[in-house]
Amino acid sequence: MSVDEKPIKIKVEKVSKIFGKQTKKAVQMLANGKTKKEILKATGSTVGVNQADFEVYDGEIFVIMGLSGSGKSTLVRMLNRLIEPTAGNIYIDGDMITNMSKDQLREVRRKKISMVFQKFALFPHRTILENTEYGLELQGVDKQERQQKALESLKLVGLEGFEHQYPDQLSGGMQQRVGLARALTNDPDILLMDEAFSALDPLIRKDMQDELLDLHDNVGKTIIFITHDLDEALRIGDRIVLMKDGNIVQIGTPEEILMNPSNEYVEKFVEDVDLSKVLTAGHIMKRAETVRIDKGPRVALTLMKNLGISSIYAVDKQKKLLGVIYASDAKKAAESDLSLQDILNTEFTTVPENTYLTEIFDVVSDANIPIAVVDEKQRMKGIVVRGALIGALAGNNEYINAEGTNEQTQDPSAQEVK
Amino acid sequence: MSVDEKPIKIKVEKVSKIFGKQTKKAVQMLANGKTKKEILKATGSTVGVNQADFEVYDGEIFVIMGLSGSGKSTLVRMLNRLIEPTAGNIYIDGDMITNMSKDQLREVRRKKISMVFQKFALFPHRTILENTEYGLELQGVDKQERQQKALESLKLVGLEGFEHQYPDQLSGGMQQRVGLARALTNDPDILLMDEAFSALDPLIRKDMQDELLDLHDNVGKTIIFITHDLDEALRIGDRIVLMKDGNIVQIGTPEEILMNPSNEYVEKFVEDVDLSKVLTAGHIMKRAETVRIDKGPRVALTLMKNLGISSIYAVDKQKKLLGVIYASDAKKAAESDLSLQDILNTEFTTVPENTYLTEIFDVVSDANIPIAVVDEKQRMKGIVVRGALIGALAGNNEYINAEGTNEQTQDPSAQEVK
Amino acid sequence: MDRLPRIPLADIIDRFVDWITMTFGGFFDGIANGLAAFVNGIVTGLGFIPSILLTIIFAALAWWISTRGIALFTLIGFLLIDYLGYWDPMLQTLALVLTSVIISIVVGVPIGIWASQKETVRRIVTPILDLMQTMPAFVYLLPAIFFFNIGVVPGVVASVIFAMPPTIRMTVLGIKQVPADLIEATEAFGSTTAQRLFKVQLPLATKTILAGINQSIMLALSMVVIAAMVGAPGLGSEVYSAVTQLKTGVGVEAGIAIVIVAITLDRITQNIKVKKKSRGNA
Amino acid sequence: MDRLPRIPLADIIDRFVDWITMTFGGFFDGIANGLAAFVNGIVTGLGFIPSILLTIIFAALAWWISTRGIALFTLIGFLLIDYLGYWDPMLQTLALVLTSVIISIVVGVPIGIWASQKETVRRIVTPILDLMQTMPAFVYLLPAIFFFNIGVVPGVVASVIFAMPPTIRMTVLGIKQVPADLIEATEAFGSTTAQRLFKVQLPLATKTILAGINQSIMLALSMVVIAAMVGAPGLGSEVYSAVTQLKTGVGVEAGIAIVIVAITLDRITQNIKVKKKSRGNA
Predict the structure, then answer these.
(1) Which of B394, C63, C95, D15 is the most buried (most CB within 10 A)?
(2) Residues B383-410: pLDDT tens digits?
(3) Which of residues 81-110 of A touch C (CB under 8 A)?
(4) CA–CA dist D261, D89 (Å, integer)
């Protein structure tokens, strides 16, 4: 469907929000291009949103993305005037809401726009059903009809049978489904979702995203989704708006955003790894599980079994690296009562902590066991696993330890003990 | 060093602890072999420890291991009579402490035995130095001397320079080092450590275990270490006592314990995986990261990069599995503006959820990408990774999902949504 | 300090009080009659029911509202009061306290709501409440006597001034403690101020407001003896006369009766089972 | 209920009180003289210092113990009291309150410690404290008058009975709240009961005990007017006589003076900077 066929649901024209006094003067300065700092100095007020201009098409999932403090939640709250815009106009289905009276605005909030909140904002003293029917209750719809409608939305989000429970009895994911059902019961045209899934744990968040997409296919509402998570934006957004410090930096489909990032900022934003920092073995090494040489083969076997690994490094009392114990040898040693010393395998490769990743790439790829990272006194510091190496190179900072050594950084390291 | 050369530090003879009334009668019944249930019914009192008999050699790390409720912390608290034994005798260096007067006992606690606690038990209103010198302060040692001794122990545990801080300013690991220093300052012969590392997070626990071993090599105290963690017992114990429901089940070196488990209970205890439960693909499948076919190649690439994976399954809106997208193809597609559909690779193996692990073992080992687990309608349920398969077979329940399906079990699954 | 011309603060206050008595005389008399009728209405009403029956009713009420333990205490306590012969004075004290508390609620809660909605109102009301609670209760007797001369009415008026602050304070606190994101939710779904207040703010604030009312009851009870100084009948005046006539025995007996009433009312209001959280089926 | 033979509870109490007055007469007189001397000692002592200087001393004391804001309030407040001409009565009230509070501490804290160590003691003491606090303060005047006849002493005695409970209660609470694992640590390192108490339990309980003392001060202050009924001089009697002579102006003025003293003492004791947590270097 090419762009111009779809009717425009929401039109936002030069909308700005200034927090503080002298907002009039600040708007003036904004108009003739003064920077946020100048405005702050001159009027002491901060610019929350700076002349936002965009259109949202009917039935679209329109994602507004930005880090915290980028003005995204202020912008979305201006759409239903929870926050009064300082300047500019907002049209919904062509009617200008920015100069609507209190009562007209209340009608729009009751009929046209519903909202889903990050921390669910469910009423603790009301059951799930009473929460879901709240919107219609305000409009004076009689009890029988509104409860019937509320049950329908609860069914839609898969919460049938939970209507008489209280919010604090449900998990995070289920509470947010109630938030969704409550918003849908008013049968609004537009759904504002303010970081609706950020408070959920990562696994549930992906499920809720899939569900929202299914829901959108069925009920076809226009959804304005606020998030700070790039993956979430890419997965559910038809179009994405990127915001930084109150300014709209770029608008486009996920592909367009990735294809030609409109300026250096966007590039860095999607790049999300600062390649300038060159990584060393210390950055990606994991805690080394070791067995002391004076232990028996069965202890080594049990440790390996518990960690799901098939080989383990043997160290002496000073944690000096002696060699590798393989599970198969340990099994034989246990049967014929040999000690770990007898089955110690001394062929193994070690790397010092500050070797660059690029140098150890080939060593790691052809070794069949994790590479040992040792300090000058041959003492075990950690091990490098192939997965971590690839992940780090691919820029996934999950695999990169903060200050280049593994986790015990904040405690004074063990070496200090005499 | 064979067993009989080393002098005996602590001798425990038939020591029992009965909680509740009629303890005399209960001891009688214990003596003539009544079971705990019979005693409970007859006297209404519970048997905490049942006729414990063992010796601890001088300078040994003697680990008492058992699940919670096995009586291990009651037993250790009887050694310094924090809990009064109901019957039996305890000798330290040959002197019987069970009938010592309050003052004599206080002397033993001040000079002979010190204790380290699970939740540290540091005095919040005292600085680290004041905490460490507490033992000597009680004995009336003058300020100058005791602070000098306290500083020494703090140095020993690597906390130099922290003496003027307050406990709540330190991390868990460092607080426990203070607990250790406080116990060492009295220069006792015996150190009682009640689950000293259980409250620390796993990484720090391993470091503290190493440090304790180093410390033991240097200062050579007799250490009685209480734990419920098999690995911890194996790693630091010279000898291990296994306790269950107040009874001592077995005493021996880590090797002996593993070699010939003295009875079915011990075997199960060390075995710790209930092999009777046959595992299926559903048990070990992980959450499947997928990309929707209508997205572009760059979105697929970014998702793969963020997850550190080199291939991703493509699904349609109903999450039906269509094929695999490889990172290399996606890179080419991005350059020559192809859609995901063009580069979709349709050779891939799928397995239904309830196939047994043994059946999919060869499929998994020779496939180079994770195996897709699908339901009857070919919809993606999860993926099986080689590491998880090996780990599960090796009995490491970290890789086994509770009820045989991955995490969204407690939320009503998405399928319900129409 | 004596060099400075002393502003005759005392005289100013006296003249101000006289002026009010003049101008609002009629108005105060109206209130006085209404109040007196209300209190005596309670006393005579309760008076009709025989003491044993009334004791059982009170105990049943206590059981229904709160717990069995308190119901038992109420039963024994009131039987003792009756046995010691202080039944009628107890009824008068009960009437005095209940009237003062009812007025505190009827006047206090709306002020509390008003203060919770308007920040400026709250900023004016709070210091006044502080002053009202630290000022010795005796001082309130003076205006009470001037406007309502002697009898139960000035007693009630003084008790109300002394007992009302906690109800107002806790109403404001209860409403203010409703989390901001819930208020935002009510806005987003288009609630009017009234709907927000009655459907969300007040229900969530009930527990705190009840705590305020409990405090007001205790303060009113602590005023009964002082109120007796302006002619308010009941257990208070029994104690007051016992003190003036140095009859320790009677003083302690009447004191015990007050203690019983105080503990009963305190336990009942503290354990009012708030209906809100009845667990629905799964 | 009248059918049952009424046990003359009142007479029993009266005869009991008479018996005590007889047997312990001398003992009570001794206490009376000691107390009177102590209170008057404070009054004359403070009386020597000119009011301006004393006000500054009080303000400095407030600044040192707590915050600048409170020091300022103390300064202005006491200047106003002096200006209104209530300086001497204020000194007397201060002496009365301080004496009662000191006695509450000296007697109350040890009882609290004793109750925290022995469970049976605690089980006896707690209900008595509840009774003491709910019984109207007036009732305490009766024994006070009998044993110490008229003047400041019965006022102090009645105030002590009414004001002491919070100090005892909070001492027990403070010590009980020390975590069990800390107590076990003191045992494991061989502390005597005294060492455990003074090195661990009391230091950790200080904050709660101070809160108890603050409550006792407020209760003592609320007693000043009632104490005036048994001849205790000070701001209390100014209010009391104003009430009996229906002079509202004077009553309000004296009332304000009491409010100033109350708020000053309350803020100071609440903000005593507990030295414990001074952050070490490194």
Answers:
(1) C95
(2) 887 666 655 655 455 556 654 444 333 3
(3) 82, 106-110
(4) 12
